[in-house]
Divergent polysaccharide deacetylase family protein
Amino acid sequence: MLSVPAYAGNIALIIDDMGYRKQDADAFILPAEITFAILPHTPYSTAYAQQAAAQNRDVMLHMPMEALAGNKLGPGALTSAMDTHAIKKKLDAALISVPHAIGLNNHMGSKLTQLTLPMQATMDFLRQQQLFFIDSRTTRYSKANKIATRFGVPNTHRQVFLDHFQNEKHIQAQFDRLIRIARKYRNAIGIAHPYPETLRFLQQNLPQLQQMGIRLIPISALMQEKALTLRQSTSDDSPKVGSEE
């Protein structure tokens, strides 16, 4: 009788930037545990979201946000010039273009995620829609997770970008780093992109995870745990009857 390995850690993988190119569809060959983060208002945003849902694959809204370097943002982006109403209107329209989304992560956003008011508007919207937030961590100065927690939005952040450089040596080093983090902290989140080099690497290397005692999990499984922890901490911090708080 074959023994089932005891899992040393869990990895959740997100493929960002889905929606612009027809070639992005090659990512659908990856295991259904891998989440697709889809850019709104792109040529294939709605079709890819529907196809992913048909695979029982988690879908996220990959929301463009203003960057410090002034990068071209793409359609539907959030900027620091917008007020709360404008931000929520943009988020609502983006969500319509990416059906089945269960959470949001930022595309770029090194400027916007540092700003309190835009993040408050974003997290208030996510709370109302019962969506979670994952900070892509494009800046170490991001306030997004702290504000998400304050608004009661389940949240976390990515640990590793796999393919900042599209070559096998770099992707392998980042993949190994992700595994080490999963072993040390039990859970790790990696973000990658639908580059041919990345898809080829993942197809070849993901089957080896189980032999290493690492489990590939959908992002929803990890976020359910985050939501439970957040509810418990909120309950623990709430004023008790008879207290002076």
User: Anything to note?
Assistant: Residues 9-237 form a domain with the TIM Barrel fold (CATH 3.20.20.370).
